[in-house]
Design brief:
Helices cover about 30% and strands about 15% of the residues. It is an alpha/beta fold and about 280 residues long.
């Protein structure tokens, strides 16, 4: 596969390239008490376009930041000046947290070349590279949508995977939430995990704003009981860190990985879904 990452040095050399667009995809859990929009306006990589994970989503559902309707996404992203044929470089304010979700969103909608900035904004700033304040804008362009519906698992599919085991379910939430030892951060959700799911916490896959080395990831997935040669679906609390887990699985060598967009926000809120504790 094409390397999903670019270095800060590479991006610094290509900031003026009209075929490269930088996207700030920062998003934080509510417990972090951080305002990603305010932080973007205070200082972002020069030219970076703001991508609002919560608002650039399907607002007709009460589930958080679900994928937009494809045509609406294409229209919005085109107005922001991001073309489907550009090289899109996504970063976030934690180093590697929400950027994989934004990358997955763009790829699922048909963008041809989406990369993640290695180390994200923290590394960029630590190296003394420039930032701009305020809102960056670009001329409107065309984003041609080619939606990959096979990249997204539905609730019905997840229930079938859970019963049949035809696709391994890897859960990116922290282990304590997976085991129902800690409550879910969103009110009203059951605690525990899906039947036949395995725990692969996303925060154990990242160090210093980067994925751990592929051999380390392979060892961790093997210890979790995940077979990289077989189909996998990732899930998490709301579809964000599931994308980090998906990226890590692919870097470790997995070839068939999809993502459950509804995640625990959907599964844990329903009466017709089975939940396992422990």
């Amino acid at each position: 596969m094409t390397d999903p990452f670019v270095s800060t040095a590479w991006l610094a050399e290509h900031l003026e390239d009209p075929s490269v667009v930088v996207v700030d995809g920062s998003w934080y859990l509510p417990a972090a008490s951080r305002d990603p929009r305010a932080e973007y306006l205070a200082g972002h990589i020069p030219g970076a376009i703001w991508f609002d994970v919560d608002k650039y989503a399907d607002l007709t559902t009460n589930l958080p930041h679900m994928l937009m309707e494809p045509a609406a996404f294409g229209e919005l992203i085109g107005r922001l000046g991001i073309g489907s044929d550009m090289t899109i470089v996504v970063y976030d304010g934690m180093g590697l947290f929400s950027a994989p979700r934004v990358r997955w969103t763009f790829e699922t909608m048909g963008a041809r070349d989406v990369r993640i900035l290695e180390g994200g904004l923290p590394r960029w700033k630590a190296e003394g590279r420039p930032t701009d304040a305020g809102e960056a804008t670009r001329p409107a362009t065309s984003f041609t949508v080619s939606f990959d519906d096979k990249a997204v698992a539905s609730l019905d599919q997840m229930q079938a995977f859970s019963r049949s085991g035809t696709r391994q379910i890897a859960d990116a939430r922290p282990g304590a939430r997976f085991r129902a030892e800690a409550p879910e951060p969103r009110p009203g959700l059951k605690s525990g995990h899906m039947p036949n799911a395995v725990s692969a916490p996303a925060d154990t896959l990242v160090a210093n704003g980067s994925l751990k080395p592929a051999e380390t990831l392979r060892a961790q997935f093997a210890a979790a009981g995940i077979d990289l040669t077989k189909p996998i679906v990732t899930t998490c609390g709301s579809g964000v860190t599931a994308a980090t887990l998906k990226l890590a699985l692919e870097q470790a060598g997995a070839k068939d990985v999809i993502l459950y967009d509804g995640a625990w926000a959907e599964w844990g809120a329903r009466d017709d879904t089975e939940v396992v504790k422990g």
